[in-house]
Amino acid sequence: MALFDARLRAPIDPGVSRRGFLGSSVMASTAAFAANMRVLDALQTPTLAAELKRQHKSVILLWLAGGASQLETWDPKPGRLTGGPFRAISTDIPSVQISELLPKMAQRMKTTAIIRSLNTRNGDHGGGTVLMETGRAKEAAVDYPDLGALIARELGRADSQVPDYVSLYSETEGRHKGGPGFLGARYAPMFLTESMIPPNIRRLDSISETDHQDRAAFQKLLARRFIDKHSNPSVASHGMAYERVRGLMSSESLFDINQEPQSARDFYGPTQFQEQCLVARRLVEAGVPFVKVARAWWDSHGQNFETHRELCADLDQGMSALLDDLGQRGLLENTLVLTFGEFGRTPQINASLGRDHFANAWSASLSGCGIKGGAVYGKTDADGQTVVEGEVKAGDLFATIFSAVGIDPTKEYHVGARPIPIVDFGCQPIKDILA
User: Fold this and answer.
1) pLDDT, tens digit, for every residue of 357-414?
2) pTM here?
3) Residue of 95, 118, 387, 391 with fewest CB within 10 Å of its CB?
4) Phi/psi at 117 (nearest 5 deg)?
5) Start-end of CATH 3.40.720.10 domains in the chain
6) Greatest mean pLDDT among 31-45, 146-160, 353-367
7) 166-201 pLDDT, tens per residue?
8) Closest CA to 163 of 339, 353, 291
9) 240-250, pLDDT tens digit by residue?
């Protein structure tokens, strides 16, 4: 008997292969099929369930709050007056060099692409942050959603009981928190600003586990009876909210790195940022579509080189461990890892041995899902003052991110009667770094 896809209202050929079925259906609409798993007998087997999970895409943004220096990370200029004291070192891609402050990442460029030609033109913390969080300049008439909310909207699953968007710790510079904008509160981030474990999700000590489960079962029974008599979207949404709260309570352990063996914690490292990278891996492994890990204090107007020596060591260890761990678990091919902040830093070195805000020629990195490892796109001049090849706008970066994880960058939303493209007008993905 032919299988039946309730979403498409069409029979599925029973003679189609598992790979063919997944290739033509699951990969085209993983989230929709995940929401209908109980309808499709074909997805009840452990093998197909595992395949479905494997196809789920996630994004981890390592947000370098304050603006990391491209010259001390991805686009060094040794020997120039603007270059500073650090060397450029070879990587596992013979034609690519990066700063000596990232020695571990230098051996992981086969999974990473670099954009060296961002020109976003906004060197203000607030304006630059909004631009790099939403992919476009702020507009009074429209409250644009940030990258995390967009990813949550496009890659989140209706039946998921884990959060769609988690933001670990607020950054110091800019003091702007992204949000869901016109997409609505359903796609708002879970902000964890004081602890890596969400507050107020533990069962009260005064309620036993048995009582807690009995109450949940009784609520489900009443909800089912009510839905049978009053079926409408509002009632269904209310029930879904209860399920997500239950899921969050049961997933508390996802945020607890004490659940990891000491060897895993040692592998990532002891700093706050490195531990957050470990939490990010735990979250995407559980199906969270977007995790933001903010590493602050990159705003190095003074003592830039000492600041970057410390911060780059933290980034190098945490990021390299994250990429290795994702790769070893088979998750990197479906997880996109990003590094950027609100802008870069000036090639000129000021009187305080610092670098100031600079948005005209700076860098970002993309690793993993959908990315051509080892690729370098764009070029700055010998002193890093201007982009001389392949200028990239914030919207182009967003279009590239969406393309890498399988989201159509030409998609539009509607706010009232006004169409809103998912990326800014005229922006295109950078095909040269897409796999």
Assistant:
1) 999 999 999 999 999 999 999 999 999 999 999 999 999 999 999 999 999 999 999 9
2) 0.81
3) 95
4) -130, 35
5) 59-196+256-433
6) 353-367
7) 999 765 554 567 899 999 988 999 888 777 777 666
8) 291
9) 555 665 556 55
Q: Which two tokens stand for residue 52?
A: 């479905």
